[in-house]
Every structure is written in C-alpha cells, then in structure tokens.
User: What shape does this take?
Amino acid sequence: MKSRFLKAILTAPLVPFAAAAGAPVSNKKAHTKQPKLKFSPDGKFRILHLTDIHEVDPEMDDDENRDIPRDKSAEAVNVITKSIERTNPDLIVFGGDNISGYWEEFTYDYISKTIEKITAPIRERNIPFAVVFGNHDSEICKNFREFQMMLYMQYDNFIGSLNAEEMYGCGNNNILINSSKSAKPAYNIWLVDSNDYPYNENGERMSGYDCVHKSQLDWYEKTAEKLKIENGGKPLPSILFQHIPVIQENDAVEETTVDNPDALYEKGENKYYALKKEHKISGEMKELPSPPANGDRTQFELWKKHGDVKAAFFGHDHVNDFIIEIDGIKLVQTFSAGYHTYGDKRGGRLIVLDENEPDNIYTESFVIDRITDTQF
Assistant: This one.
C-alpha cells in the first residue's frame, strides 16, 4: 500500500504539501500534459540509461566535516551531458540511486538543488525523461521519494507519476511508444520501484535488499493483460527498468575455487563464484549481483508467463556491465554514471528499439572520459 504520507498528499496541491513538509515552497505545479513518445520514421527509438549517479550537492552543510569534492559533481554532470551528445536519445531513464539520500545532512532544499543539477542538461535540450528509484534515494527519510517525484513532475519534459494506481512504492508506471505510422502503441516501457530494504513487523530494518511487492506485481499482471487485449490478443513488446536486479541473474553463476582465473570473490560470503559454462555473458561481471534478500523469484516468472518483457535493465551493482540471457529474456546491468560511489569507470548505456523487429534490442554501454585529473 501507499504510505500514509503519500496518501495525505495525493489530494493536495504541491505548494501546501511542500510547506507542511518543511520543504522549499515552489510556485510551479506538476504539469498534467506529459510528452508523448513515438518511433522515428526509420522505425527506431533510442533510450539512454544513466544509473547510480549518487549525486549530492557540494554546498551541503557537513556537521561531520566530511569532504564533498566539487569536482565529483562537475564530473557527474559531464557524464550526463556527454552521454546525451553521444547517444542523441529520444528518452532518458535515470536508473535509481539518482541522489545520495543517505547523508544525515540531506534536507528538502538540498534534494531540490541536486535534482535541479542532474536534470539541467536534459531540460536544456527538452528531451523526455523518466526515473526509477534505488535503495539510496531516500535512505534517511522515507518521504524523500514522494518529494523527489513531485519535483521531477514539475518539469515539462518529464514522464511519470507518483504511482499508476494504489500500490506499494513510488513511481511505478508504464510508458507507451506509439508506432511511427500511427497513434497505436508499438512498444511499452515498465518503470518499477524495486524499493530499498526489508523491515520486520516492528519497523526495524533487516539485512539485505527489498523486493518488488505483491501489489506491484498485481498491477503489472493486470496492465500487461490490458495491453495484450488492446494489441489484438498479442503481448505488447516491452522492456523494463528497475534498480535492484532479479535473483535469476545469480542463476548464471556457481560457487568455485580461488584458483579459478575467472573467479569473483564475494566478501560478505567469503566465497568465490564464476559464470556457469552454459551461460554466455556479454560485458563484465565484476561482482556478484545483489538481488532481493528474500530470494523471491516471482517477478521474473511473471515476465515469462505474460511474454511481454524482452529485456530488463538494472543498476545497483556499480561496476557490473553485462548482458545475460535467461529463458529468452535479456538481463542487463549498467555501471555507474556518478562519482560519489565506487567503480573504475563512468558512463551509460544506449538502447535502440526497432518497431519492425521488437525482439531485436540493440544495446551498448560506453565510458565517458573525465574532464579533470583530480584524484578522488
């Protein structure tokens, strides 16, 4: 279900909500007419996936005297800007952990400044964009997600809402891409909130990461069936974006020994893993994927059942940059775009859809060079 906070603000305009929440007051309300997406005359549609920006404003008051290098912010904005110039996208999707919401000093004002900063290169070019949230976007305060979404919703080139209907999480939506030849949808994009951490009945945080909840899966099934009916009884081809990967990624690896030259060391488990011989990987798996802690396998199985999801794109594991196909579905991870986190390279991923060959999804990741030689 939605949080009590979210239910309380759904029927109120943005300005009273912001004032009541102690947030900076904006005179601009969320726009109601959002951009419509359409395949180009050549039948192609280009998407830029940027994930784990982890941005935080360097001007943030820091009671613990932690250093927030200004160059890190400049480098992150450079990644966003150069990625746009490189890919010429029709849509940009932020893949979660868009801001570093775990800083104790984070306030509504700094959230607003940070979102303003990372969206500036996109807004200047008036490119449609959407977001999903990660586990760190609102780690200090649960209300931060709804506030962030309402900030995004003020921008005329943003596509999304608090939720498509009553369900768990924030930002669960689907976006339709119309055919180049008509106003009929030819493709669908799922935007799913993979949430953050599991909590027990006493509200205490448990170990590991949360999963996509049943109410979200129910919404997916209902909407997928509706789109199928509207598409003449055939599943509407779809791709999906969420932050935390599904556990089926780990089906492609098995425990191994330290003498395996392809071994990955998982510190938390003190074990070594390697890709199973029957699975092929394109790209690099530099750490074991981090799926939900409860081991739930339902989401992926529902994708198979409904037959619409051709590929799913994740962030979360900052150094992973790969494509694995399992049961006909491509599972894709994109490495970090921002510098307030670990990793040895920064960049994004281009995705090209073809309305004439919906199963043929082209995707490539790319690295953006730094603009400074500062050692962080």
In short: The two ends are 41 Å apart (CA to CA). Residues 70-87 form the longest helix (18 residues). Helices lie at 4-10, 14-20, 70-87, 108-125, 144-152, 214-230, 298-306. Confidence is low (pLDDT under 50) at residues 1-28.
